[in-house]
User: Fold these one by one.
Assistant:
Number 1:
Amino acid sequence: MKRNIFLYLFVFAALIALFQFISSNKIIKAGADKIEKLQKENAKLNDSVEKLQIRILDIQYFSLENNDDALVYFDDLPLENPTRYIEDKLLETNENKGDNPLVPYEGMNNDFKINKIKVLNHKWILADFSDGQYWGDMVIGYDLKEDLSIDFTLIAHLLYARSN
């Protein structure tokens, strides 16, 4: 009888060991598959990040912050961030009652105001304007003087046709 109990215990222990072995192999295989899948996804995401970084560099090519030759013109002026200063001065022209004086169109829905600004270099700005229903773009020349006043000059402009 004692022998049968040991035999049953041995068989039972062997079955448990076999179950653990098979179960652990499945867990290890599932983990390895998950790791492989995550590595592929990570590689794909890294490629996407790299493409986006290249795109950002292309977009930033025409900006004052990345144009060392243009930034030299601001070395003698006490400006910490010339781009921000120029943008703020241009946005101040929106404070006038009525249409922005730089926008060569009369507002049809409301007053035309400048919305977005891109300072290209030490002389030119791209700007977007809108009255809420109609919109357009313009190229503005500017001259920053030593007393930190700025003269803005409209170079080119266009108003987009409204599409319904």
Number 2:
Amino acid sequence: MNQNQGHLERLDLQTGVYSLEYALDRLQQLASSPEADNYDGVSINITGMTILNNRFGMDNGTRILQVYVRSLQDLIGPDGFLARLGGDRFFAVYPREHRDQVIAFVKGVDLRIPEVTSKTVRVNCSAGFIRISEDRNAASLLDAMNAARRIAKFRENTTWLFYDDEIRRKLLYERQVEAMFSSAVEQEEFQVYYQPKVELHRYHLFGAEALCRWFHEGRMMMPADFIPVLERNGSICELDFYILEHVCRDIRGWLDEGRKAVCVSVNLSRCNLGDPELKNRIIGTIERYDLPPGMVEIEITETTSDVSFHELQKLVSGLREAGISCSMDDFGTGYSSMSALSEIPWTYLKIDKSLVPVGNGEPEDEKRKILIRSIVSMAEALGISCITEGVETLNQSVFLKSIDCYLAQGFFFDRPMEKKEFETRLKK
């Protein structure tokens, strides 16, 4: 192997920073040395690159990325190093004396790139920091940085965090959940709970949403305790189909027993969108139980990723052609786009509970009324039915009827219930 070839293998060709393999080797050497006390590490995930690529074009998006990492490399100096983890993710190791400057950098930086635009370009990121002396193992250090960065991404009022005892406990818990998952599936520790949906004309049962609960060693684990972990490691895709399978099995059982059955909606994580066989897997699972049309609905949260948007559009269109209804879940929680409503053939729009007026007469509550009234009217004009989540009072129910939104679910009507209790509810 010649010298140039070895040099190329050390570098990421697009950005010129170190390759992950070479950087981990350098990090391992540093972590094992007395110099570890003098260095920090940071994991970075640049946000908004899709928007920048759309605004300036892919080639200019690459230039922006290159200028960003070059600026960070200049900041940390020759005693630090920077490596690409993949895509828009990087990690850096730098002398601790540069900590304040690096923190200021990851909070957001304005770049001047004349060949792209005459204006400054704002680049933001989420970041997780660690003291290199925390661990002697390079892979463990990187895992810890990444954990801090993931938590920072969803933490309010900050986009960066230092790895600490709280994050250490979270990381340990995540590993425990990951280790338990396979056996939990095999032993059917995951159970389907059903939350009824109500039609407000006569307050009768219209359908239900399938929700997941995990019973482990006699204790029920709520979704917030494990769903985010499974989303991060991709296991949520397996769980989604586990729930779909059990819902189809339950509906088939009710029909065979001559019971009343209603349409049940099943949540589908966006992580599934990368599966080219997703549509066929969904249709195949439902057809395997020979269910009548309209007995299963798929709920999907809107995505802000353009790539995922087109995959989502294709999936929903394909499912609708197969007679399977689809709903956009949690509408109003993010940056819902009009194209997601107009270009994807949704059957239902699920309005998030954060938009439901609480009835206190405050200005914010009046804004909620305006928003939800407009959403219902717009959806109706597009041929999409609305269902409102999180209805907890009679006044909220009356208000929804007044704006012609006649489908709802929430604690005012029913809480999520286990299968046997829901079967009793089906008789009413």
